[in-house]
Design goal:
about 240 residues; alpha/beta; 9-stranded mixed sheet; about 25% helix; globular
């Protein structure tokens, strides 16, 4: 049975429902499955729990789901650059479970590995540990964290083969690999799709066994959250002459 879907909307059409937990790869706007996120928005599903490092920015990435009023809860490491997210959280309209970044990655990895919980020192003695079981090992206190599994996982890869084996590019290899393993159903969008045998097995990061559906990513602009550049030498020279 082929894993290839004709579009992001087709890949999600029979999965979307109110109240789902959706894990999403990427880091801000880097390496996000933008086509699949747009398809979630277009589905109209509401009361969603989104698990992701953060929620992008206003009007881009996962920010479009916040604007559409489709998100009930977010499990993330920070609110980042999204002003509407912060406003809704502070107004009590959005339930947010803050999780340290490394702990979030490990919760997803554990979910994909079938490990129900683990202990970590991160967060002990802070609000992060409130209400969670504590245990002492070798004289050190640890907090127990539960693994995360999602109804649907959405990831972005640079290259995939039609069997669903995935290769990521540069910083897109952030949360995508752990998210890919944590979904009951994982859907990947890829910029390049090749035939089986064309990928070097040594370069495959996510084996195709974790991926149920695959879609060709559209050729779209890859947004950057904050662009910072140095003034040109000519600008510096002109400023010096006017001083």
């Amino acid at each position: 049975m082929t894993k290839i879907q004709t579009s992001a909307a087709q890949a999600l059409h029979d999965l979307m429902a109110d109240g789902l937990t959706i894990a999403v790869g990427g880091f801000g706007l880097s390496g996000i499955p933008a086509d699949l996120i747009d398809a979630v928005r277009d589905s109209g599903a509401k009361d969603l729990t989104i698990v992701s490092n953060n929620m992008g920015v206003d009007g881009k990435g996962l920010g479009v789901l916040i604007e559409a009023g489709q998100v009930r809860k977010v499990i993330a490491s920070y609110v980042g650059e999204n002003k509407l997210f912060a406003e809704q959280y502070l107004a009590g309209k959005l339930d947010v479970e803050f999780t340290p970044q490394g702990t979030l990655a490990e919760r997803l990895r554990a979910g994909g590995a079938g490990i129900p919980a683990f202990y970590t020192r991160t967060g002990v003695g802070t609000l992060v540990a409130e209400g969670k079981p504590l245990e002492e090992f070798d004289g050190v206190t640890y907090v127990r964290e539960r693994a995360i599994t999602a109804d649907v996982a959405l990831v972005h890869a640079h290259t995939a083969d039609t069997d669903g084996n995935l290769v990521y590019r540069y910083t897109a290899r952030n949360f995508n690999p752990v998210v890919a393993t944590a979904g009951k159903v994982t859907i990947a969008e890829a910029e390049v799709i090749v035939q089986p045998g064309e990928l070097d097995p040594n370069h495959i990061v996510t084996p195709g066994v974790y991926v149920q559906r695959l879609v060709q990513a559209s050729n779209r602009v890859k947004d950057i959250e904050q662009r910072t550049v140095r003034p040109s030498r000519e600008t510096h020279h002109a400023e010096a002459l006017t001083v």
